[in-house]
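Explain my protein.
***
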Amino acid sequence: MTSYHVDAESAPLTFDLGGGLECTKVSLGPMDNNGYLLVGQTGPAVWIDAADEADRILEILKGRDLGTLVTTHRHHDHVGATADVMDATGAVGICGGPDRDAIERATGTEQKQVWDGSTIQVGEGALEVIGLVGHTPGSIALVWTPADGPTHIFSGDSLFPGGPGKTNSPEDFTSLLDDLVDKVFDRFPDDTVVHPGHGDATTLGAERPQLGEWRTRGW
């Protein structure tokens, strides 16, 4: 499959998600955070994780109407440009409910909370929100399911090629892996593309055979 690779030296990469939605991916800041711009044929755009480098983000957004800025979780490396981008664009900030207070304190912004069952409008469709508890209490993933191609999941730091995101206790690890199995792997097919918060993309089919190994090793 395509890895959708970008790094600090790369120009932004634009690709088709199907269903009339286009994605632009860029590496931001010293921790190689992925920022994603989702643009439909009509309506306001969505940005996922304004991690750093507000000027670069605003250059990519030039001429576009940004309606929503989604933060996948509360960690500092995912929120560095949130306030500046929201101020410059008037976008509504959205994040997982359990992480909202921490994100608001860190950024000085007002955030709308979402969780399982919520949707976020983009183009002529909507992103489904999935809550994944473990990397942080309020981490979320965003799901795009077009009629004409594979599902795409923007997983934040909850799922990467090779395993779940970092957790700080066995209880957090079990919570995250259980959520990933119940809400992601048991629901979506192998050709589902996972776009993580750092690094390259993967598919659920590539990761599924490792689920037992992940649970055994505990990370």
The first helix runs from residue 54 to 61. The chain has six helices and 15 strands.
